[in-house]
Design goal:
By secondary structure, the chain is of the alpha/beta class. The chain is 41% helix and 18% strand. It is built from 5 helices and 5 strands. A 5-stranded parallel β-sheet has the order 3-2-1-4-5, with helices on both faces. The model has no long low-confidence stretch (mean pLDDT 92).
């Protein structure tokens, strides 16, 4: 399974990291949302590095997890089976992201959101 995580701020990299550690996931696409120009992969590298320092994971495991993650723009999501949106809690931004993704993703791609306060129905409109 291939998963795209949209958003490189606070939550996106953490979500991508968890997916990368799952054996059933072959590829994780970490995509920048419109509001971010930063690459979230270094954040994942730092977090996983701390687990190596604590002896919870080996460097070989970390290398395998990081090899699954590809970071870039929204266009990476075209290959995803599952898409998890984790951009800013702003309705207009979320709607714009989903509109763009709806145009590039396949009809079998499952869309999900990580919203905590916005109505799902409003995001989907």
């Amino acid at each position: 399974m291939r998963v795209a995580v949209i958003g490189t701020g606070t939550l996106g990299p953490s979500i991508a990291q968890v997916f990368s550690q799952c054996d059933k996931i072959e590829r994780v696409y970490l995509c920048k949302g419109r509001e971010s120009s930063k690459d979230g992969k270094p954040k994942i590298e730092r977090a996983l590095g701390k687990l190596v320092e604590k002896g919870k994971l080996s460097q070989a495991q970390i290398d395998d997890y990081l090899a699954k993650i590809e970071s870039g723009n929204l266009e990476l999501a075209v290959n995803a089976d599952l898409l998890v949106e984790a951009v800013s809690e702003d309705l207009a931004i979320k709607q714009e992201v989903f509109e763009q993704l709806d145009q590039i993703c396949g009809s079998n791609t499952v869309f999900a959101t990580n919203t905590s306060s916005l109505p799902i129905q409003s995001i989907g409109e």
